[in-house]
Amino acid sequence: MSSVKKYxxxxxxxxxxxxxxNELIRELRRFRDAWEIVTMRNQDLSDERLAxxxxxxxxxxxxxxYSPEAQKLASSWLKLDTEDKSxxKSxxKSxxKSxxKSxxKSxxKSxxKSxxKSxxKSxKRRVQNQxxxxxxxxxxxxxxxxxxxxxxxxxxxxxQGNNGLWYVSRPTKKGVFRWFKIK
Length: 183
Known about the structure:
This protein has 5 helices and 3 strands; from the N terminus they run αααααβββ. It is rod-shaped, with a radius of gyration of 43 Å. Strands 1-2-3 form a 3-stranded antiparallel sheet, with no helix packed on it. The protein is mainly α. It folds into 2 domains: about 1-130, no CATH class; about 130-180, no CATH class.
């Protein structure tokens, strides 16, 4: 009960026998509004209904609101409300965590991709820089008139083509190496 007493001025017991009609209606309105906010339930105590009821009925309403039964009911509602809020907060936190995890995963994936690309490029560079110029057995290299070597791997080298002529590997305007006939 002590935790419920803190909420919005509810449960300020006053001797009901000493209260006048206006005081009873004012107290019931205040109590009704606080109760409806706490429990999120309509109490069906409209201003018209309060104005039409007798003093004894108003006292019985207030008496019920001041009763330990009503206090227990309100405290259970308040506990549920605070539990719901804490659940909502924990859900928000878990959503934030999952979003962060997914962002981290996507960043990791993009980093991995960029690393793979850079590794591939570095492998190509190593192959090119080491003069990894070996004949290829692929159909396109064997059947063409030029040398059976990839020009990119044999930069600035001169090789004899499949047709017996000599070729040199030179870059094009785009920087890609191709075989050109030596005149």
